[in-house]
């Protein structure tokens, strides 16, 4: 989760902690002036940015493509191509495949695992010029768009039709639907609208040999053979380039409300989640968990103006509940009913609850939850783990990590200051943040592989939503068996025998 | 859609209209007495049914496994194995792979496309003895079960926990969760809870060489590499044997209502669908379309007791709307509000609406919709097409098919009596039924490939939910490009190089 829902901001620059591995066995050709000459035949001049002659763009023009969003990973590509059509993408890819030039597909470049920038000097193929909405059917809600469409632009396109995109995330002003599909992005609406494997109905993909795979179906149901498009959802650009996406939009809710609940103890989170699900049922759209320390950091760094001291007193943790439904009165009645029954229970699960009464208060409550990331980064250097574990184990994982650091003598003000947990309880997605005074090899050694092993011991995922990219290829085995990884490698070899598509990402 | 929600019934027996193709190139070994001797080493006696010595079961014991639900496809297998554990499945498959014995995985044997029975004398591996619920987490709603669990048994297991399965279908008393996953079954809840690609969270699969692929995750979010399990969803047993399934159950709705709407004209269906979606939003759980002739057939054959003559007068078609929500009063208020606004509109989209007032009336309204299949089969011989097309084209496809038959001189009482359409508007899934006096080669020739070509011209699917099985392998190209089919074949070869897994199904 990130500090803001509506704008992409750069985090303070920090030194790279680990450099990604490049597969030693693969050799690719660098882009040459001859290649540029060829690209000039298939693309208009405006679609080619290159430091190579005769284009000779200044290096600075390349940097927004070479550097990732966190400014942590830095590619050395000489050339960015910005095709406008699937046909152009296909011609570029076909040529690169023949020439043995490696390609990094790039969307909005907001990925957080170093997948969207080159490891070396791979060609960058940016989808940023492919921004057409191809079709929208207001009856079924199915929208078909070029892969380069910005998520927010699609939301804006849908709004007057009373539809919303089935996903939403902090990066929406920059990330592209093709990038979202390629990372299988989760985000803020997953609890309600499910994941992209369910809502993406079709894809158009340029395969690594340049062939166009047209599975751009606008059907909700199609059981004719293997569902190949699923493989590209979350493949992080290693199996081909997504050029078109067909996706099911959701009817826009007519009303949204939220409430911040203060819990006397951590153990109440799960029974509370059950009760909230039962009572709010289909209108529940978020159930976000915030531990006490996360809350305090948010307050300390200016995010927590919505609660009074008495609301907070004695609370071990907080839960933010959001509803979205078809009728405001009904939703409010349900929320009020929930609050009453919670407060009147014999052994109440909550101490208190603050219900937003206006759009401004609604945003203030969200600001606490969404401000944690920023607050954490103001407090110190954060080791961030975006993990999926069974909901029942959230507390255990935070506690075990803290205990482990303590046993290593690292839990004090000059080393690790806080171990905090927050995240999407509804999705089993915990953001485990270890806030340190500084990044040190000692802390890193204490944390890894400890955290990955801990996650593995719960059959958890070391990457709930951000993907593997270049950052976690070496850790894949903590979440996937050798059998799985071997099969992935075979699939990769089948689609991309020369390995030109985003080399060194996902698989080592 | 089928005549009943709660029981599996055999349709009247009818002659097979087309026999499936067996791939000429593949040669397999028949099961021998030596093989039986080997199976006896790895399985208890009760798990082996075989006409071969020394087991020597009577042939009649094999027939429920060899004959499909429609009694249209008939295998000639000598041997059915009913393992109780994944380990046993793995040992059987490993052995068969080495020996070149082909295997048909079989669940509840309720499939409608001949996929679940052998084409020749393949070994049948029935999952019917693997019926354990492995775990259930009442907080997240994630249930993990053996593949052989009957869908209805899983629903019953969940009921006391206030959860429901995210899918429901007429065959629920017999079909198994492994079979549902393998056919990517749609059914009655898809509009509300989405498809299995979204709700299946993990699978355990025995691969064609006997290796166990454990991707039995209980996580809602996991972005660690390619999502391999997706390939098995809808693979109809051709890539491996599903032995375990992890799936997200949905909180049980507290209340359900329905209403039958009579429309003056077909053209109103789509605007009505939009309006209903807008007003009912998250509580809409079904939007089923019934054309006038389908309705009349239902009445004629005893299904239509719920509407009066004046409700029906002047109606060109009907729509059944169902709501399921968390609070009865709210849902009824929304439904009443919808009906009022529909009736008071300047140009009303509906003539009238009948709202169920009791559980009995609720069932009576559903009985009309669900009784069509039975009514159609009483009226004559039905050519049934289970197609997906853009919702906007439903009427056109029915009309074009009727016109085409007319132009061939086949639209009269001795040939084609009716061309009717009904189905899940919400899912874009039309059941196009051509009701004839008898099955004749002339009618079949007029219908095929005409209907498949028509479907293809809308970029539709020739199989919305039933799959390809043995029945439609030759027609796959109407819904999938050569590029897609070639890739599917490569995937098949990658997983199953010897082709032992359900040969002749899905791919020719
Ligand atoms: C402020 C902020 C908030 C975020 N919030 C969330 C969140 O809530 N949930 C979440 O899941 N993620 C979140 N993310 C990370 C998320 O993965 C990305 O924001 C987004 O999905 C990536 O889209 P993009 O267009 O920027 O892709 P990029 O960053 O450009 O690329 C990401 C990966 O996909 C590949 N790729 C991109 N486009 C294509 C294509 N057309 N074809 C093939 N491969 C392609 C790239 O090669 C790369 O491997 C957040 C990031 C930021 C900066
Ligand atoms: C009355 C009735 C109503 C129906 N309603 C619907 C409906 O509304 N929607 C819909 O989509 N379908 C419907 N169907 C068809 C539907 O496909 C099946 O009912 C069901 O999904 C198949 O489950 P099964 O266990 O019976 O599988 P089977 O019929 O035994 O097998 C179906 C296919 O899956 C394979 N298979 C089965 N189990 C496994 C396994 N464990 N591992 C690998 N492969 C396996 C088989 O080899 C075969 O190819 C209906 C059928 C009937 C008879």
TrEMBL record, chains A, B:
<dbReference type="InterPro" id="IPR004113">
    <property type="entry name" value="FAD-bd_oxidored_4_C"/>
</dbReference>
<dbReference type="InterPro" id="IPR016166">
    <property type="entry name" value="FAD-bd_PCMH"/>
</dbReference>
<dbReference type="InterPro" id="IPR036318">
    <property type="entry name" value="FAD-bd_PCMH-like_sf"/>
</dbReference>
<keyword id="KW-0274">FAD</keyword>
<dbReference type="InterPro" id="IPR016169">
    <property type="entry name" value="FAD-bd_PCMH_sub2"/>
</dbReference>
<dbReference type="Pfam" id="PF01565">
    <property type="entry name" value="FAD_binding_4"/>
</dbReference>
<dbReference type="GO" id="GO:0004458">
    <property type="term" value="F:D-lactate dehydrogenase (cytochrome) activity"/>
</dbReference>
<protein>
    <submittedName>
        <fullName>FAD-binding oxidoreductase</fullName>
    </submittedName>
</protein>
<dbReference type="InterPro" id="IPR016171">
    <property type="entry name" value="Vanillyl_alc_oxidase_C-sub2"/>
</dbReference>
<comment type="similarity">
    <text>Belongs to the FAD-binding oxidoreductase/transferase type 4 family.</text>
</comment>
<dbReference type="GO" id="GO:0005739">
    <property type="term" value="C:mitochondrion"/>
</dbReference>
<dbReference type="GO" id="GO:0071949">
    <property type="term" value="F:FAD binding"/>
</dbReference>
<feature type="domain" description="FAD-binding PCMH-type">
    <location>
        <begin position="73"/>
        <end position="252"/>
    </location>
</feature>
<dbReference type="InterPro" id="IPR006094">
    <property type="entry name" value="Oxid_FAD_bind_N"/>
</dbReference>
<keyword id="KW-0560">Oxidoreductase</keyword>
<dbReference type="InterPro" id="IPR016164">
    <property type="entry name" value="FAD-linked_Oxase-like_C"/>
</dbReference>
<keyword id="KW-0285">Flavoprotein</keyword>
<dbReference type="InterPro" id="IPR051264">
    <property type="entry name" value="FAD-oxidored/transferase_4"/>
</dbReference>
<dbReference type="Pfam" id="PF02913">
    <property type="entry name" value="FAD-oxidase_C"/>
</dbReference>
<dbReference type="InterPro" id="IPR016167">
    <property type="entry name" value="FAD-bd_PCMH_sub1"/>
</dbReference>
């Amino acid at each position: 989760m990130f500090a803001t829902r509506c704008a992409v901001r750069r985090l303070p620059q920090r030194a790279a902690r680990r450099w990604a591995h490049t597969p030693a066995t693969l050799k690719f050709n660098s882009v040459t002036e001859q290649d540029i000459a060829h690209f000039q035949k298939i693309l208009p001049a405006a679609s080619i940015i290159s430091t190579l002659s005769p284009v000779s763009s200044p290096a600075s023009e390349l940097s927004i493509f070479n550097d990732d969003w966190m400014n942590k990973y830095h590619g050395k590509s000489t050339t960015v191509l910005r095709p406008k059509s699937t046909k152009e993408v296909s011609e570029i890819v076909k040529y690169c495949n023949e020439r043995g030039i490696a390609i990094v597909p790039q969307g909005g470049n907001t990925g957080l695992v170093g997948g969207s920038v080159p490891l070396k000097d791979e060609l960058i193929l940016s989808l940023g010029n492919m921004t057409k909405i191809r079709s929208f059917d207001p009856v079924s809600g199915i929208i078909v768009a070029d892969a380069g469409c910005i998520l927010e632009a699609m939301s804006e396109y849908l709004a007057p039709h009373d539809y919303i995109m089935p996903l939403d995330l902090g990066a929406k002003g920059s990330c592209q639907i093709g990038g979202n599909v390629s990372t299988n992005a989760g985000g803020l609406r997953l609890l309600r609208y499910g994941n992209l494997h369910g809502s993406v109905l079709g894809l158009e993909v340029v395969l690594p040999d340049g062939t166009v795979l047209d599975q751009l179906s606008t059907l909700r149901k199609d059981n004719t053979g293997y569902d190949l498009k699923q493989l590209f959802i979350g493949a992080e650009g290693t199996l081909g380039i997504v050029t078109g996406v067909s996706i099911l939009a959701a009817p826009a809710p007519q009303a949204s409300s939220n409430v911040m609940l203060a819990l006397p103890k951590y153990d109440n989170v799960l029974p509370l989640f059950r009760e909230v699900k039962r009572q709010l049922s289909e209108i529940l759209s978020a159930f976000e968990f915030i531990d006490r320390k996360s809350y305090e950091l948010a307050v300390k760094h200016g995010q927590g103006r919505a609660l009074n001291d008495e609301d907070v007193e004695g609370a071990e943790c907080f839960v933010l509940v959001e509803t979205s439904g078809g009728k405001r009165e009904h939703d409010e009645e349900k929320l009020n009913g929930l609050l009453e029954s919670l407060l009147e229970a014999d052994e109440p699960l909550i101490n208190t609850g603050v219900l937003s009464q206006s759009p401004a208060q609604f945003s203030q409550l969200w600001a606490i939850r969404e401000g944690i990331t920023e607050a954490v980064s103001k407090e110190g250097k954060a080791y961030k783990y975006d993990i999926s574990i069974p909901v029942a184990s959230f507390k255990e994982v935070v506690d075990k990590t803290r205990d482990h650091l303590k046993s290593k003598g690292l839990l004090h003000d000059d080393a690790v200051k806080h171990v905090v947990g927050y995240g999407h309880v509804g999705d089993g997605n915990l953001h485990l943040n270890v806030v340190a005074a500084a990044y040190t090899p000692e802390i890193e050694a204490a944390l890894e592989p400890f955290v990955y092993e801990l996650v593995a011991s719960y059959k958890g995922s070391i990457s709930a939503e951000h993907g593997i990219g270049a950052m976690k290829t070496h850790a894949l085995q903590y979440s996937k068996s050798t059998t799985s990884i071997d099969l992935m490698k075979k699939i990769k070899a089948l689609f991309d025998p020369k390995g030109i598509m985003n080399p060194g990402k996902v698989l080592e």
